[in-house]
Design brief:
The complex is a heterodimer of chains A (about 400) and B (about 120).
Chain A: E1 2-6, H1 10-22, E2 26-30, H2 33-42, E3 47-51, H3 59-68, E4 76-82, H4 89-95, E5 99-103, H5 107-147, E6 159-166, E7 174-182, E8 185-193, H6 198-210, E9 222-224, E10 231-233, H7 236-246, E11 257-265, E12 270-276, E13 281-284, E14 290-293, E15 311-314, E16 320-324, H8 326-329, H9 340-350, H10 356-371, E17 380-387
Parallel strand pairs in A: 1-2, 1-3, 3-4, 4-5
Antiparallel strand pairs in A: 6-17, 7-8, 8-11, 9-10, 11-12, 12-15, 13-14, 13-16, 16-17
Chain B: H1 3-6, H2 9-15, H3 20-46, H4 50-65, H5 70-85, H6 91-119
Helix pairs in contact in B: 3-4, 3-6, 4-5, 5-6
Classes of the chains: A alpha+beta (about 400), B mainly alpha (about 120).
């Protein structure tokens, strides 16, 4: 381990150097703070032992300069004080010194102080390593999660679907998707697990597996039957009830989630959907007017008494619907104001003439501008659908 | 006057882990440096430069402190305080006192060194 000794008085400097060298440390000496900083540019020192009163740059200034430098590796600083300077201890601590050794000191005392510094440095390094590994794991997890989002446009000519997703700093609790359940049906959902981080992400990934068009043991949306067409589409209300049964919170699992799940019949253009505690679908007709289709209901997992009722809406050509997470409504500006429904309504009405892609993009840009430097506190997801074709 | 009248020999040896070679090195450095520091104090007094007196006395105090020579340490500290207070009115006398203490330290260190040379 490399130690930098900063001491202007040569006898004390030599004594420090020898004692430390005898204990097996690699020691470099500097005569004042300025020299010390120069030495630190060339070499990494884990521990700096510095005198207080020195010409050019004194110990206190040196400590401040070291702490001002945002190097990732921590430098452990021991300040040497003579007894008369004990009153300055507070100033030294505030500047960022880790420990003090008052002169005159015994070699044995110096050694134990240095050793405790060494312990802290090595704990720090262990933490940094573990932290880096965890960050890498989280990044991979975020990538996996992202891969579960829609990855291609629909090829249906009469339907356009657009989406945007922006996770907050941690792992996301939002997930959404759309797919064809059969030739005549498109399913879409957007869900938001409470909180974020690993637990929320794990649940959202599990849910995305269950909300899939593939018929298998875990799929909730489609099941096999013995008569033609040999499958059955689970009605949205039943999907919600099933989810609520499977994900009821208990003492081990305090997570819940809100979801909108709907199936659009492409022959009739009727969207049948349920909302479980989720912000209402923003419905926009060709004139541009936006209505929020609110449906008071409990999030999934809250209580086994929850009732989920299906709603239906007949979409006409050029009608748009927007599913979104509460990360939009609850985005906060620096004045702590929430973005809210009114702003979203106004924004959507303003961008009615823009393409669906642009209107979805605008939402994210606007939220980004609104929150300014505060960043995204929560995940922000938007899934929008427009029915194509000429108005009749 | 014996070595022990001037410095705490036991404490000194304990502080350097009985490393005689190191003691020898420390003494050599000290012998080189202390006249320069005394001179610095002298110059400071001549130019009524309290800051210079303070710094040189502080440094000398640190140096002599390594040898557990309490009287010399105290004499240097007195000058450091005078410099710090900007009051050099007693400076000359204080310096004379310090110089005489330093002479004692020097001779004590020399006898210590020759003792060690004989015994080691």
């Amino acid at each position: 381990m490399k130690i930098l000794v900063v001491e202007d008085e040569r006898v004390s400097q030599l004594k420090l150097k020898r004692v430390l060298q005898k204990s097996g440390y690699e020691v470099t000496c500097a005569n004042d703070g300025r020299q010390a900083l120069k030495a630190m540019e060339k070499n990494d020192f884990s521990i700096v032992i510095t005198d207080w009163m020195m010409p050019e740059m004194d110990g206190l200034e040196l400590v401040r300069a070291i702490r001002a430098d945002k190097s990732p590796d921590y430098t452990y600083i021991i300040m040497l004080t003579s007894k008369a300077e004990t009153a300055d201890l507070v100033a030294g601590m505030e500047a960022g010194a880790d420990d003090f050794l008052s002169k005159p000191y015994k070699s044995a005392e110096l050694r134990v102080r240095v050793r405790s510094g060494e312990r802290l440095i090595s704990l720090n390094q262990t933490l940094a390593t573990v932290n880096a590994r965890m960050r890498k794991d989280l990044e991979s997890a975020a990538l996996i999660q992202k891969s579960l989002l829609p990855n291609k446009k629909t090829h249906r000519q009469n339907v356009e679907i657009e989406w945007r997703f922006r996770p907050c700093d941690e792992l996301a609790g939002d997930i959404f998707n759309f797919f064809e359940l059969d030739e005549d049906t498109i399913a879409l959902y957007l869900l938001d697990v409470s909180g974020h981080g690993v637990a929320a992400a794990l649940l959202s990934v599990t849910l995305s597996r269950m909300l899939s068009p593939v018929i298998d043991d875990t799929s909730l949306l489609k099941s096999k039957t013995s008569i033609a067409p040999y499958y059955r589409l689970t009605p949205p209300a039943e999907v919600a009830r099933q989810l609520n049964k499977r994900f009821l919170i208990d003492e081990n699992n305090e997570q819940f989630f809100t979801i909108i799940y709907g199936i659009l019949n492409l022959k009739t253009n009727v969207l049948t959907y349920i909302s479980a505690g989720h912000p209402g679908i923003a419905y926009q007709n060709h004139s541009g007017k936006v209505d929020f289709l609110e449906m008071p209901s409990m999030p999934v997992g809250f209580t086994d008494q929850a009732v989920y009722e299906e709603q239906q809406i007949l979409l006409k050509p050029s009608d748009r619907i927007y599913l979104y997470s509460d990360g939009i409504l609850e985005a906060r500006n620096p004045d702590e104001e929430l973005y809210g429904k009114d702003r979203l309504q106004h924004l959507l009405e303003k961008s009615r003439k823009a393409s669906l892609t642009d209107s979805v993009e605008t939402i994210l840009t606007e939220i980004s501008d609104f929150t300014k430097d505060a960043g995204f506190e929560d995940d922000v997801s938007v899934l929008a659908l427009e029915l194509k074709g000429s108005e009749s | 006057m014996t070595v022990s009248d001037v410095l705490d020999r036991e404490e000194l040896m304990q502080r350097i882990d009985d490393d005689l070679e190191l003691l020898h090195e420390l003494i050599e450095l000290f012998v080189e440096d202390y006249p320069l520091l005394l001179n610095d104090i002298n110059e400071g007094l001549a130019h009524s430069d309290a800051q210079r007196v303070k710094i040189a006395a502080h440094t000398l105090k640190g140096a002599v402190g390594n040898f557990c020579a309490q009287a010399a340490f105290d004499a240097a500290f007195v000058l450091e305080v005078s410099g710090n207070n900007g009051d050099l009115s007693q400076g000359r006398e204080q310096l004379l006192h310090l110089e005489s203490e330093m002479e004692k330290v020097l001779s004590a260190l020399q006898s210590l060194q020759s003792e060690c040379a004989n015994s080691c």
